[in-house]
Design brief:
By secondary structure, the protein is an alpha/beta fold. It has helices at 58-75, 92-100, 136-139, 164-181, 195-198, 218-221, 224-240; strands spanning 36-41, 80-82, 105-113, 121-126, 190-192, 204-210. It has a single domain (36-130, 155-240), classed as Aminopeptidase. Bound molecules: zinc ion. The site of zinc ion has 5 residues, from loops.
Length: 247
């Protein structure tokens, strides 16, 4: 069911027509009408992720980058929730549940790859290995938990199914921005089997920075702010293009 549209704020025209209306300042940071961004620093705890020869460890670097990305997205007016903000390792389903708790969320999982040309960034969306018939999950948009199976167990692994198109679109739009900021990055997003997105009942994108093999961590930490800008622009473009398909 669609939510009632938010009332449009209309400013009546000024009585004086001798001057153009003053330029309205950008609205103060507001989360109204914007998705909650669930920022997922992948791995954590005993799951270190990729390791580079110079000592770069994926789980630590993605957390550091995620904190910078969060600050930048918040500065741009987004509400951001971190799937972890320490060296813990929530399960895929626990991370997904943080996005699934919101009516309007976008899940962004951050990785640093072990391969790829250093300085490039790729966006992935989940390409489900086994297509399934549409489930009631899509229809029951207000019920963000996966639909129960006949046995009563939630179909966690089908949660992303109704959102694959929306995920593909926002991943492409983010990737287009990444291609501008990170030379050599692909122009379009990459389909892959991404388990970390599969339980997410919202548009979800995994972003992988290349790579843990760079000589210095500085180039990775320096990527955080342009990465945040690319994410924000991609999400804004997906909103401008229409519904995310979540409703
Ligand atoms: Zn990873």
């Amino acid at each position: 069911m669609a939510a009632p549209p938010s009332p449009q704020q209309v400013t009546p025209p000024s009585a004086s027509t001798s001057q153009p209306p003053p330029q309205q300042a950008a609205p103060p940071s507001t989360t109204a009408g914007r998705p909650v961004i669930v920022l997922d620093a992948a791995h954590g705890g005993t799951d270190t992720g990729a390791r580079g020869e110079t000592g770069i460890v994926e789980k630590d670097m993605v957390l550091q980058i995620a904190r910078t990305v969060r600050a930048e997205l918040e500065r741009q007016g987004y509400r951001v929730v971190m799937s972890r903000n320490d060296d813990s390792n929530p399960s895929y389903d626990e991370r997904a549940a943080m996005a699934n708790a919101y009516r309007d969320a976008i899940f962004i999982s951050l990785h640093i790859g072990s391969t790829g040309n250093p300085g490039t960034v790729r966006a992935f969306y989940d390409q489900l290995a086994t297509p399934v018939a549409p489930t009631p999950v899509a229809a029951a948009a207000n019920v963000k938990s996966p639909a129960p199976t006949a046995s009563g167990l939630p179909q966690w692994e089908q949660a992303q199914q109704p959102y694959v198109e929306a995920s593909h679109r926002v991943a492409d739009l983010i990737q287009a921005q990444l291609a501008q900021s990170f030379s050599g990055s692909p122009a379009t997003a990459t389909p892959a089997a991404v388990r970390g997105l599969r339980s997410v009942a919202a548009p979800g994108v995994a972003i992988e920075i290349s790579s843990v093999s760079v000589p210095s961590a500085d180039s990775l930490t320096a990527a955080a702010t342009p990465l945040a800008t690319a994410i924000a622009r991609g999400i804004a473009a997906s909103r401008a293009a229409g519904s995310t398909g979540a409703n």
